[in-house]
C-alpha cells in the first residue's frame, strides 16, 4: 500500500510520500535498483563470515577430514560448500574496490584466494556425511549488498 498521498497527485508524488514498499518500487522504477538491497538483514555479513570464512584455516590431518569436521560443526549436510581462507578485510574489498560486479550484485575478485571446496562423497546416511576436500587458490564470486559479501552466491570463479 502506498499510503496517503494527501493533496499530492499520485503522478507527482515522490518516495517521501510513500511507505517502505512504495519507496522500493519507486527506486526500482526510477533507478533499476534491486529491492533486496533496501531490505538487507543487519547480520548477513556476519552470517557470510560464519558460513564461508575460516581464517586462519582450521588445522586438520587432511582436507577430507577438514571438510567433515567443518560441515559437521555447521549441522548441515550439503552437496558442496566452499570455505574461504582470507581475512574479512580482504573479502570486503571484493564488493567495492577489488572486484568486478555484474548487474545482479555478484562480484568476482580480482585476486585469487585460498579456498577449500568440500564435495559430498556419497549419499548421506543419517548423521553421517562424508566429504572430499579440495584445496585451491582461485578467484571467488560473492553476492554483494550494501558493499558487503552475503552468504548466498559465494563460489569459486573459473
Automatic annotation (TrEMBL):
The biological process GO terms on file are: defense response to Gram-positive bacterium
| Location in the cell | Secreted
Give the highest taxon in the source lineage. Eukaryota
Instruction: Assign the protein's first listed, main location to one coarse class.
Output: secreted
Keyword annotations: Disulfide bond, Secreted
Q: Which Pfam families match?
A: RnaseA
Q: Carries keyword Secreted?
A: yes
A GO CC annotation recorded here is: extracellular region
The UniProt entry, under InterPro entries, shows: RNaseA, RNaseA-like_dom_sf, RNaseA_domain
Q: Which GO terms describe its molecular function?
A: nucleic acid binding; RNA nuclease activity
According to the entry, every stretch annotated as the Ribonuclease A-domain domain falls at: 41-153
Q: What family is this protein classified in?
A: Belongs to the pancreatic ribonuclease family.
What is the protein name for this chain? Ribonuclease A-domain domain-containing protein
Please name the taxonomic classification of the source: Eukaryota, Metazoa, Chordata, Craniata, Vertebrata
Amino acid at each position: 500500500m502506498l499510503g496517503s498521498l494527501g493533496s499530492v497527485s499520485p503522478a507527482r508524488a515522490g518516495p517521501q510520500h510513500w511507505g517502505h514498499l512504495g519507496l522500493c518500487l519507486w527506486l526500482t522504477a526510477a533507478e533499476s535498483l534491486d529491492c533486496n538491497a533496501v531490505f538487507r538483514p543487519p547480520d548477513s555479513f556476519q552470517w557470510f563470515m560464519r558460513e564461508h570464512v575460516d581464517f586462519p584455516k582450521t588445522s586438520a590431518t587432511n582436507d577430507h577430514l577438514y571438510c567433515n569436521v567443518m560441515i559437521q560443526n555447521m549441522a548441515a549436510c550439503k552437496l558442496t560448500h566452499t570455505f574461504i581462507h582470507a581475512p574479512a578485510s580482504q573479502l570486503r574489498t571484493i564488493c567495492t574496490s577489488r572486484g568486478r560486479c555484474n548487474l545482479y550484485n555478484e562480484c568476482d575478485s580480482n585476486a585469487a584466494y585460498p579456498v577449500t571446496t568440500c564435495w559430498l562423497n556419497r549419499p548421506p546416511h543419517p548423521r553421517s556425511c562424508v566429504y572430499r576436500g579440495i584445496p585451491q587458490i582461485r578467484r571467488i564470486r560473492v553476492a554483494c549488498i550494501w558493499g558487503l559479501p552475503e552468504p548466498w552466491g559465494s563460489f569459486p570463479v573459473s
